[in-house]
Design brief:
single chain, mainly alpha, two-stranded antiparallel ribbon, elongated
Length: about 210
């Protein structure tokens, strides 16, 4: 299912945007690592660079997940998900997670570069927090689509409304408060798992209720 979803994304107009945003993420990670390894002025700029990296990573994660969901999210591919569930004999949750597995294949390496750079710049805990960020955004996006659904554009992609955007931002806002400190990252891990679990549950319920030929 991940391969099929990846093929659908590759055949759409969003792939260049995914790749370009992913490259910028990777470059930012390498710059972060260079700041720390360079010493001197780079070490003094570490707090500033970390603030920039964290903010940019937050925006990038939302953009990447939003672009991916516009082509392969539950609203955009409800017929494919429903059909795959009926013919595969697997649970809808496994089918949904299998489809979402195409996202790390597309941008996983770039995000690893970012996390590695932050690990050198700040700490391993901060790198883990950035690694959890895309997972948190995916869970928030699943909940947002269940709340508002998605409109179908003329190019076949889905577009989300204001309510969905506000929902994603509200659910992801705790990242900034919990992305530093051992207890904060531990709480962020629990929160991320909870948001993803709720997102998968509501997406499964919504997708199972829609005939795949719709």
């Amino acid at each position: 299912m991940a391969s099929r979803t990846g093929s659908r994304v590759a055949g759409s107009a969003v792939l260049p945007f995914l790749r370009s945003t992913g490259r910028l993420v990777a470059v930012l990670g390498l710059l972060a690592a260079g700041c720390r390894l360079g010493g001197g002025l780079g070490a003094e700029l570490t707090p500033v660079v970390w603030s920039v990296v964290r903010g940019y990573a937050f925006i990038s994660a939302i953009v990447l997940v939003g672009l991916f969901f516009s082509v392969a999210g539950p609203s955009a591919s409800v017929a494919h998900l429903r059909y795959e569930w009926e013919v595969s004999g697997r649970s809808m949750a496994r089918v949904l997670l299998g489809a979402l597995g195409a996202l790390p294949r597309l941008v996983g390496r770039q995000w690893l570069c970012l996390a590695a750079g932050v690990g050198l710049l700040v700490s391993a805990r901060s790198a883990l927090a950035l690694g959890l960020l895309p997972v948190l955004v995916v869970g928030a996006a699943l909940i947002a689509e269940a709340v508002e659904g998605g409109g179908q554009g003329v190019d076949g992609r889905t577009t989300q409304g204001t309510v969905s955007s506000v929902c994603v931002l509200a659910l992801c806002a705790p990242f900034f408060a919990l992305s530093s400190g051992a207890w904060g990252v531990a709480a962020l891990s629990v929160y991320t798992c909870a948001v993803l679990a709720v997102g998968v549950a509501v997406a499964v319920h919504r997708t199972r209720g829609v005939p795949w030929r719709a």
